[in-house]
Amino acid sequence: MNVEVLVIKLHGRFIGHLFRYALPMSRPVIRFVASPEYAAEPWDHVDVLSESMRAADPEQQQSFWLDVTRPDFNTVVGAHGDFQLPPFFQNLLPEGVFRRFVADEANIDSTDHMAMLAACGKNLPGAVTAEWEELQRSALQRLVTQNQDALEVTVAAEPFQDAISISGVQPKLGVNKTKEGRFVGRTTALDDVSIIAKLPSTEHVRMPEVEGLCMQLAQKAGVNVCEFALVPLSEFGAPHRYDLGDEVNGNFLAVTRFDRNQSKRVHFEDFAQVFSLPPERKYEGSYRDVADVLLSLPQCGEDAVQELVRRIEVNELLGNSDMHLKNLGLIYRDRKNAELAPAYDITSTLLFVGSVGHALHLLPGSNAIKGSPLWSPSNLRDFANALGLQVPKLSKVVQEVAAKAAQSWLDPILESKLTAKQKHTLLSFVGGHPHVVAALRRLRRLDLLQRWKDSVQIVG
């Protein structure tokens, strides 16, 4: 029997092992086992790995960590019958075309989740690392069988651990910016990448330009977004094997990682990890579930819920139907207390798939009426009441977003590098949105309302 073992560290400190083994004719066991030393520390003193691993009763935290039978720590059978890592670790893996790119570079099977985690183990999101380790048989027996059975094993460490894990489905690379302004790959001098370069896609026209514009518009509407910049590909010096098609002379989006602070790593987890759900279930749950978590966290509270409401409205106005659980996250700047992470991956899916909606339900089990704004008066009231918050406060947030969008989005869209068709679609959608129309009438800016209408005709 072969046992593969990864050492899991948080902020450079050993916190446990993730291992995989399989007996003949049986499904593999993939399990995270916390170290006794890490488990013994109280939650309010220890560096936090995930809110999903918080015991309901602080007095039970140690027994929570040491219960190796918990679903949070064990194999998950995926929708396609694959044997996945425990949810927190599965969500650390790259996705889509970037996952295939990493697998090719590492010469491993992209469906081998353990090998993928190991390949990216030194460059994962947040402050977690995962590195291969060879253990003596006695140590393996304690780890795998909890000293209950004898164990005959062989262990072979794997060599490749130089990839970087970035979620999302478009072509991308981890890079650093030189003093001369060039964007290059990692070197021995620049071991940890601080910038994610989102490259053009042969499937979706002007994807970097669309996301860059949407991030800019979200910022103008008051959303706290991560640092980004649209940069000519002529300044991109990192080698890659992506086919960039006709946009090889276009632009890429340089997104500064908020989970890196110079040489230090800042811990981060997305809400799929918070809810202990595998990535393939990132569209489950509701925004109310997210808001409940935010209200329970001392560094978040009602202000963070208002920011969530703000982001939902921005995505509504942009026609973005992809703000799922992995596109919302928590950041631990002091290692212990979670804050709502800056917004990232905001793009108008309307321009690529031609339909609108929202990635999650507003309330558990609810369904939005097709063609109606998610923040209708009744939905806003139900959402606020479910959380015990005042309706007028949340209503004010929605109205402020709509007013800012109505007054500040027109010129950036017109001046953007989008295609004429994309501009026409976005101008028609935003300028004709009931919330934007109502905001301009409320502000008595019928002149600006007419400009929105005229602009659609001009770019059409």
Detailed description of the structure:
The protein has 460 residues and is α+β, with helices and mostly antiparallel strands. It has two domains: 4-145, no CATH class; 172-459, no CATH class. It has 17 helices and 16 strands. The protein has helices at 36-40, 61-66, 87-90, 96-106, 113-119, 137-145, 207-220, 271-274, 287-296, 301-318, 350-353, 377-387, 391-408, 410-415, 420-431, 434-442, 446-459, and strands at 4-10, 13-21, 29-34, 76-77, 83-84, 128-132, 172-177, 183-184, 195-198, 228-232, 251-256, 260-261, 264-265, 267-270, 329-332, 339-340. It has a five-stranded antiparallel beta sheet with strand order 8-7-9-11-10, with helices on one face. A four-stranded antiparallel beta sheet has the order 3-2-1-6. A three-stranded antiparallel beta sheet has the order 14-15-16. It is globular, with a radius of gyration of 23 Å. It starts with a strand and ends with a helix.
Biggest sheet strand line-up: 8-7-9-11-10
Cα-based radius of gyration, to the nearest Å = 23 Å
| Amount of helix | 25-40%
Instruction: Count the DSSP helices.
Output: 17
Overall 3D shape: globular
For the record, the count of structural domains works out to 2
- Number of E-state strands: 16
SSE class:
alpha+beta
Q: What's the pLDDT, averaged over the residues?
A: 89
- Which spans have pLDDT < 50 for at least 5 consecutive residues? 150-161
**First-residue to last-residue Cα separation:** 65 Å
Strand content: 5-15%
Summarize the main sheet: 5 strands, antiparallel
